[in-house]
Amino acid sequence: MTRVAVVGLGALGARAARQLASTPGVTEIVLGEPDVHKRAAVAEVLGPIATDAEWSADDGLPVGVADCDAALLAGPAAAHVDQARRLIALRRPFVSTADARPTVQGLLDLGDDASQAGVSAVVGAAFSPGLSCALVRHGATWFDAVDEVHVAWLGTGGPACAHQHHRNFAGSALEWHDGAWIQRPSGSGRELCWFPDPVGSADCYRGDQCEPLLLQPALDGVSRITARMAGTRRDRMLARLPMLRPPHPEGAVGALRVEIRGRRSGATDTAVLGAIDRPAVAGAAVAALATVWAGEGRVNAPGVGGVAVQIEVLDFLTELARRGIRAAVFEGSSPVS
Amino acid sequence: MARTSMDSSGFAIMTLVRRALVAIGAAAIVAAVLRLRGSGGVPPRDGGWRELSGPDLK
């Protein structure tokens, strides 16, 4: 019997609410969204399981969130840190879909407060980051020691995701390099990455992504973590300007590719995992499942961390596969990069 | 007509500005070429993607 709140009903939040509505054990979904029309529309689609809750502008949360077993923060990322502080004060577990690095860093910085309050939280629980972190964590179990992790991402979900993708090329990319954090220019480091079929190949560049930040605590002894995202020359050249036209309501098919290099059975080896799906759909499934698990107390420990740290990813990926979000592994003898 | 000292200094400034603009333009073109070009990757020569299932998820 789980009562959950979904805060933010954009492309990802609305789909996550629908996923939650079809999850056994979820008895009520409290919808939190300042736009009353959007809230009412989603409530109508979901039916009696949804509660069209009044929005508290002071808290930035729906009224009644204190009575929920867990909350999913799926609205604008800029508000997540303040919302998380209030949820920690209310001692409510929460999941954040934030994909902006400053926001994710701000949420991770709340780790001590969450631990003291006994609150478990999962941040970066969407497609990338989220499913990407689960794939890395699972692939890492195939190795005796992991040396390098390289993540690549293609596609965008809703408009907020497209804006973040645009901004990611304008900042600097954070990478874990030989035991230290380094900043590299976003848009540099072109690499042709091969995603699962039928997406195929795409040029990927460094971006201001969250995966290194979220994966590093989960991988003992790893020496390099990098993240790239697919982009065009126009994306890179215009990254520092406002978007010239509004993004589509939802992007097309997206893809993930994670490459893990390490040692197993006394030899160096490489594993490549991937996934394809519409980012908002797959991200919503990840966020919804993480929220249910947070509400059921299946998150690893009080504190704040990414999917790779907070969640037992084997069961998580199995359940995602049951929901239609399937991962793939590359099997081949030639180099893939 | 003889060029005055004022004309001469204005001409020198314009020449300087013109050369500076040409230098900046050339640098921008070189930077753009360096930023945009890049070497291609190596495509997989054999193998393929297989769905994770069964033993992979144990």
Helices and strands, with pairings:
The complex is a heterodimer of chains A (337) and B (58).
Chain A: E1 2-7, H1 11-21, E2 26-32, H2 36-46, E3 50-52, E4 55-56, E5 61-62, E6 70-73, H3 80-89, E7 94-96, H4 101-108, H5 111-117, E8 120-123, H6 131-140, E9 145-154, H7 159-168, E10 172-177, E11 180-185, E12 191-194, E13 201-206, H8 211-215, E14 224-230, H9 233-237, E15 254-264, E16 267-277, H10 279-295, E17 303-305, H11 307-310, H12 313-322, E18 327-331
Parallel strand pairs in A: 1-2, 1-6, 2-3, 6-7, 7-8, 8-17, 9-14
Antiparallel strand pairs in A: 4-5, 9-15, 10-11, 10-14, 12-13, 13-14, 15-16, 16-18
Helix pairs in contact in A: 1-10, 6-12
Chain B: H1 5-36, E1 48-51
Q: What assembly state would you assign to the polypeptide chains in this entry?
A: heterodimer
Order of helices and strands of chain A: EHEHEEEEHEHHEHEHEEEEHEHEEHEHHE
Round the Cα radius of gyration of chain A to an integer and report it: 19 Å
Give the end-to-end Cα distance of chain B, rounded to a whole number of Å.
93 Å
The major sheet of chain B is characterized as: none
Poorly predicted runs of 5 or more residues of chain A: none
> Shape of chain A, please?
globular
- Measured as a percent range, the helix fraction of chain A is 25-40%
Distance linking N and C termini of chain A: 46 Å
Describe the 3D structure.
The complex is a heterodimer of chains A (337) and B (58). With 337 residues, chain A is α/β, with parallel strands linked by helices. Helices cover 32% and strands 30% of the residues of chain A. In chain A, strands 9, 10, 11, 12, 13, 14, 15, 16 and 18 form a nine-stranded mixed β-sheet that branches. Chain A has a seven-stranded parallel β-sheet with strand order 3-2-1-6-7-8-17, with helices on both faces. In chain A, strands 4-5 form a two-stranded antiparallel sheet. Chain A is globular and about 55 Å long. The termini of chain A are far apart. The model of chain A has no long low-confidence stretch (mean pLDDT 92). Chain B is mainly alpha-helical and 58 residues long. Helix content of chain B is 55%, strand content 7%. Chain B is built from one helix and one strand; from the N terminus they run αβ. Chain B is rod-shaped, with a radius of gyration of 30 Å. The N and C termini of chain B lie far apart (93 Å). Chains A and B meet through strand 12, helix 12 and strand 18 of A and strand 1 of B.
